[in-house]
Each structure stands twice: as C-alpha cells, then as structure tokens.
Specification:
By secondary structure, this protein is of the alpha/beta class. The chain is built from twelve helices and 18 strands. The protein has helices spanning 39-46, 106-109, 150-153, 159-170, 173-176, 186-197, 210-218, 232-239, 254-263, 286-289, 302-314, 330-338, and strands at residues 2-6, 14-17, 28-37, 48-52, 55-58, 68-69, 74-81, 93-96, 133-136, 142-143, 179-182, 203-206, 223-225, 244-249, 264-272, 293-296, 322-325, 345-348. Strands 3, 7, 8, 9, 10, 17 and 18 form a seven-stranded mixed sheet that branches. Strands 13-12-11-14-15-16 form a six-stranded parallel sheet, sandwiched between helices. A three-stranded antiparallel sheet has the order 2-1-6, with no helix packed on it. Strand 11, helix 6 (186-197) and strand 12 form a beta-alpha-beta unit. Helix 4 packs across helix 6 (186-197). The longest helix is centred in the last third of the chain and has 13 residues, at 302-314. It is globular. It starts with a strand and ends with a strand. The protein binds zinc ion (2 copies). One zinc ion (ZN) binds at residues 38, 40, 72-73, 158.
Length: 352
Amino acid sequence: MKSYAVCECGAPLEAREEPTPEPTGSEVLLRVVAAGVCHSDLHFWEGTYDLGGGKQLKLSDRGMTLPLTMGHETVGEVIAFGPDVKDVKVGDRRLAYPWIGCGECKVCQRGDEQLCLKPRFLGVFRPGGYSEHLLVPHSRYLIDYGDIPPEQAAPLACSGLTAYGALRKLGGLVQTEAVVIIGAGGLGLICMSILKSLGGHGAIVLDIDPAKREAAQQAGALAAIDPNAPDAIQQVVAAANGAVWGIVDFVGSSATVRLGVDCLTKGGKLIVVGLFGGEITISTPYIPIKAMTLQGSYTGSLAELKELIDLVRGAPLPLVPVDRRPLEEANAALTDLKDGKVIGRVVLGPTV
Ligand SMILES: [Zn+2]
Ligand SMILES: [Zn+2]
C-alpha cells in the first residue's frame, strides 16, 4: 500500500510503498475513504510545541517515532478483519476513533483512552490515514456515522470531538449561560454549531480578525469582540450579562489565557484547548478567592465521540467547506494549511 510519511521533522512527506497489513485477532483493516488534514498535523509534522520563554516540547520525547504516517481523522471501508471481530462486515463504512490508549491501564478502563500514558493514537504513535489503508487495533474503535457524508464525518474525530469534549467540561451551564469562545477559526465555528445542537444559551466570540468576527456574527454569535480592544474584558462581561461562567480557549496563547483568567467570574471555568503556546503568571490567591477552574482539554473519549455522532446524526451541523484532494497531494495540502490558504477542510482520499 502507498502511504505518505514524515521521515524527517518539517521536511516534505515521503511516498512509501509498504506491504498492506493483514489483520489478526481483533484488528480491522480499512480502505481509506477520507482522511482529514488537521491543524495539529502541522505540530506532528514539525515535531514540537512552543512552551513559551524560548522553550519547546519535542514530540519525540513523548514517544513519537519516525517515519510516521499522519492522519487521525479517517473514514474507511472495512475490507478485512481478524477472527475475533464479530461486529463489522466487509463493505461497512466507519469512522475510526483515533485517540487510542493501551486499553489496559486504569485510565483506559475508565474510558479516557485519550489520556493514557501509553498512547497508540492513530496518525501520531501508529500509522494513520494518509495512506491507502488503515489498520485499527480493535473494532470497538469504529463508529457507524450513518448518512453523514464521509468527508464531513472524518473531521468529527478530531475538531468536532475537541470542541465537544471542551463543552462537556462546562457541564450544564452551557444551557443557562453564554459561553465565551476564544478563536473563531474552524474549531470555534464548529464549537458554536455543537453548542447550538446542545441547546446552548449562546456564544460570545473573541477573535482579532474582523473577518472571523463577522463570520461568527453571521453564525449567530450573541456578540463578536476584538480581544485587543482596550475595554475587551468589560465588553465580554457586559455581553455575558455581568458574569462570565464558562470560556473555551481555542488559541491557547499567553494573551488569550490571560484574558480568559481575567474575564472569569467567581466559580467560573476556563477550558484551554488551543496549542498556540506561551506562558502566563497567575497570582495564586486568586485561584481560591475566585474559586477558579483552569482546565485543559485534549480531544475527547470514545464515548464522547459516539455521543457527538448521535448528536450530529439527529441534528446535522452546518456543512464545513471541503477541498477533496488525492492522497498524492498530501504535501501540498499540509503546506497550504501552514500558509493559511485553506478555507474549511482538506480531505485526502480517492475521488470515488
Ligand atoms: Zn492505557
Ligand atoms: Zn486533529
């Protein structure tokens, strides 16, 4: 099978021809139908996160090894499976849950495989969907996405799940209070749609780009605010009727996390999702005095992805513009994403 792999961090992906895996035991082999090209692939490709203050986190220190076939947003058609698999048949089309753990530790048993310390994430620690085929270690990671178009279903495994997982951490307050969403890029807009499907009270959206604020306004935001405005905090608090209870930060820079902390009311929650990078200082007495929750969110669990798919099957999200490209254009797709030339989502895969 042909795959496109990172062989050297930041260098162009290389086309590799390898034997197509033969599934054993509980494994399932998919023919890739749609593989989303995600912004986090840029981090995996470059191999680092910016920790602020000139420091970097190397993904190789977290167990990522090269060559790596990226691609964690994959829809595929079942073409073969091991003898232990009973719940899929050849020809079934499924979305692969990519945030797979060891499956055995307490965290995995609890259902939070995305937090396992021995991750086997597809497209990060195991080969992913930038390939003709994808081997999934167990059929329980395959989700029936019904009649959602495959190129719309694929990104739900990452961007959709990331937004959903963050909103879930705010609990029931999303129905009674406005949620502040920092960053009106793809993730922020998906978050707005999911919030609506959850019966959310509404979103106050912050973005430095006027065009993105306009897009958020058109998508039904209660308010769209420039975080660089001198009175940004006052504007946000006013739009939230005097108290900001829940914030999801899809940027995660020093400036946005700072702003988030400063906006929160007593008892409020700031969920940080974005990996832009940076660092902030917090006066520690404010943590108890404001009864503040500062929580990170990394993708979501298998159960949450199933919930999200059910939600979307019942109430389809607005379609994300999709640029479908053949697998052979994996490099161009990544470069365009890096250069900010992609509107919506690039999805790799066969055109039929
Ligand atoms: Zn585990
Ligand atoms: Zn992703």
